[in-house]
Design a protein that fits this description.
Largest sheet: 8 strands, mixed
Pfam families: Abhydrolase_1
Number of helices: 13
Organism: Rhodococcoides yunnanense
Keywords: Hydrolase
Helix content: 40-55%
Shape: globular
Radius of gyration: 17 Å
GO molecular function, one term: hydrolase activity
Protein name: Alpha/beta hydrolase
Strand order of the largest sheet: 1-2-4-3-5-6-7-8
């Protein structure tokens, strides 16, 4: 694991592949870490990529400020822009899952000059997802857990009790590896991670369309993301777009379907 300084913060970054390989930045979601990309990375490296997977703000111990105001989306995307700058990368292919997908959508929409292609897993474009939360009863039910996570200190207190029993139950004991639990049960870590939810605003719904070639991978076994927002996603991409539906896979696509996801990432990279 390398350490990369971005402004006042130090980020843990897993890097793999040749230094002159095609740069791919992979962004993890909640409640995971960059370890979620371990099964995807070998296939990308075999395809000639240099994989750069940071532990994002709140997940890297050296980038864990206290206070919801430090976790606004413009700060999260700013971290990735700073990472690109620190690594002397004018642009990169971008991959994201869950909250990492949210950051990736915003970065691609607002800074298309820094993003060559986008492959997003699970969470659709923010305008599509916010529409679903507002209009679709199914998605409203699926997103009820947001309420707890928008109270970071309460979330940390409640979710880490009894060896993180509720955290495991919320996200599936089999998929939520002990490594992630250990990472988040460090005092302050879950409060920081939950602050991403607390910092969400209605402005997410106003994100402009993405204008870089994009693939969106959704799984019909996902308990967190329903079909309505997933199918609406393409309305917010003004570029070559591919929607991939995986059958029977849960929310944890990078770990449960690494081969399929890797193939889609490589195909999207090769399309440009």
């Amino acid at each position: 694991m390398s350490e990369v300084s971005v402004g006042a913060y130090v980020f843990e970054v897993a890097m793999a592949g040749p230094s002159d390989g095609v740069p791919v930045v992979a962004l993890h979601g909640f409640p995971q870490t960059n370890a979620s990309w371990r099964s995807v990375t070998p296939g990308l490296v075999a395809a000639g990529c240099r994989v750069i997977a940071p532990n994002q703000r709140g997940y890297s111990p050296g980038a864990r400020p206290l206070g919801v105001e430090h976790y606004r989306i413009e700060q999260l995307t700013g971290d990735i822009l700073g990472l690109l700058d620190a690594l002397d990368l004018p642009s990169a292919h971008l991959v994201g899952h869950d909250w990492g997908a949210v950051v990736a959508w915003h970065l691609a929409a607002e800074h298309p000059d820094r993003v060559r292609t986008l492959t997003a897993a699970s969470v659709p474009h923010s305008a599509a997802f916010n529409w679903a939360i507002r209009e679709d009863p199914d998605q409203q039910e699926r997103s009820q857990y947001f309420g707890l996570l928008r109270e970071p200190e309460k979330a940390e207190r409640v979710l880490v009790e009894n060896d993180a029993q509720r955290l495991r139950a919320m996200f599936g004991a089999e998929s939520l590896d002990d490594e992630y639990v250990r990472h988040l049960t460090v005092p302050g870590a879950l409060t920081a991670a939950s602050s991403w939810y607390a910092a969400m605003t209605r402005e997410f719904a106003n994100l402009p369309p993405v204008t870089v070639p994009t693939t969106y991978v959704w799984s019909n076994g996902d308990t967190a993301i329903g079909r309505a927002g997933a199918e609406r996603c393409g309305e917010f991409v003004d570029a070559p777009y591919r929607f991939v539906e995986l059958d029977g896979i849960s929310h944890w696509i990078p770990e449960e379907a690494p081969g399929e996801l890797t193939a889609e990432i490589v195909a999207r990279i090769d399309s440009v």
